[in-house]
Amino acid sequence: MHATTTARAVIDLDVPGDVISRHLYGHFAEHLGRCIYGGFWVGEDSPIPNVRGIRSDVVEALRALGIPNLRWPGGCFADDYHWRDGIGPRESRPTMVNTHWGDVVENNHFGTHEFMDLCELLGADAYVNGNVGSGTVREMSEWVEYLTRDGDSPMARLRRENGRDEPWKVPFWGIGNEAWGCGGNMTAQQYALEARRYGTYCRNHGGNELYRIAAGASDDDIAWTRALMESLGCLTCGSNPTPVFQGVSFHYYSHAGGGINTESATSFTEDEFYGTMRKALDVERVIRRHEAVMDSYDPDRKVGLILDEWGTWWNVEPGTNPGFLFQQNTVRDALVASVHFDAFHRHAGRLKMANIAQTLNVLQAMILTDDSGAMVLTPTYHVFEMNRGHHDAAALAAHVLSAPVVGGDVPGLSVSASTRDDGALVSLSNLSVDAPLEVQVDLRGRAASVRRARVLTGEDAAAHNTPETPDAVAPVALETSLEAGVLSVALPPHSFATVELDLA
């Protein structure tokens, strides 16, 4: 371990900014590997405790995060999914082949009713991703009607025949996914026209108002965002109707420098650790680029920016199906999450939703499960839990005045903060792989006292949890001092901490 270094930051407690939507802490569940089957869905006959086939301990763990929304059924799978195959008696549902993920047979036992049941158990809003790539406008329009229309209509009658009388609330609707790739290999201009057409027929029924999300760019492809914004016309003209879609998405994955799906989740060098931090921190530049394009067309921010896939993408664990994308989750992954959230908080005025990929057993998962009934909370899960106080709180300006540079060009400290009612939450990340960090934070504008402080780290940056050692990486109490408005915190190497404050 290297000698302790120092850093200084300042937070203005009396100048609240944009509200950090709880939906920035959203999740993603695709029909991929063991995310749905063997993850959320074990079936009603399973010896693993469940409610109507949905695994009970998983629901309880996610409810502890205050999970705000869940995106389903994909991902690439969404543009091969035909919703009518997933309704009615399970034994009568047709099968399909999931060619995107493992070339396995999908039995459609987990469909629309099961997903909406899951959302109700979680207390989460539904984000349904419709099929543009291989579907039709009518198919998507009828799915919206099936889910959300009350009274007498063909789809409402069909829903009742399948056992659900009342319509569901579905706040978020995705108009396809990755239309530049697995969702149809379209050009930006071609997809923009399709988004307008599909969005028109995704109607608001009764009191259900859809927030329609156009499938956006990969990384910093601002040309794609520009084409979508251009297609909306004049958003500042007084006579202009509500935009046909209300959100524009993009996807961003982190890796150590070699590209997605090329590197180990648990065996990495110091250079690869810092390469990962560098890539994760770069999400802020990407957000800024999309914001700049959107601001030029939409200065009043009527349209939201949505990062509905993000996280790390490593090689699968040895011996597992390469199409199932099962990877271990380490302290390094937790820090990728923490610096993403710091960026999200700073851009909460435009960034309205984000969905980590994915919730269970796939990529940067919250939870790992197995068929024996074991369940492991990952280091990333703990970052979500520790940051829960930021949900729907007002962002505070947090400035790093001085901090060491690590790994050549990586800032050693990442900070964000928010306030709600008479409290505040400060999040701090030490991005040094081997040096402790003494942090002093000037808390200005209001008197404060420390309510609770916790830290998350491990023996090394590759530390992770297993069924045998489920708490190898878990939050523990952190000592702090607060004198004359200066908060002092000693952060171990490769660590994430939160400090909860009471404000006078």
TrEMBL record:
Q: Catalytic activity, per the record?
A: Hydrolysis of terminal non-reducing alpha-L-arabinofuranoside residues in alpha-L-arabinosides
Keyword Hydrolase in record: yes
Q: What PANTHER family has UniProt attached to this entry?
A: ALPHA-L-ARABINOFURANOSIDASE C-RELATED, INTRACELLULAR EXO-ALPHA-L-ARABINOFURANOSIDASE 2
Stretches assigned to the Alpha-L-arabinofuranosidase C-terminal domain: 308-495
Out of the domains of life, which is the source? Bacteria
Enzyme class of the recorded protein, top EC level: hydrolase
UniProt-listed InterPro entries: Alpha-L-AF_C (IPR010720), ASD1_cat (IPR055235), GH (IPR017853), Glyco_hydro_b (IPR013780)
**Which SMART domains does the record cross-reference, listed alphabetically?**
Alpha-L-AF_C
Record's subunit section: Homohexamer; trimer of dimers.
Could you list the residue ranges that cross the membrane? none
The answer to keyword Cytoplasm applying to this record is no
- Family indicated by similarity: Belongs to the glycosyl hydrolase 51 family.
Its EC number is 3.2.1.55
Output this protein's name: non-reducing end alpha-L-arabinofuranosidase
Gene3D superfamilies reported in the protein's UniProt record:
Glycosidases, Golgi alpha-mannosidase II
Record keywords, A-Z:
Carbohydrate metabolism, Glycosidase, Hydrolase
Q: Which organism is it from?
A: Microbacterium jejuense
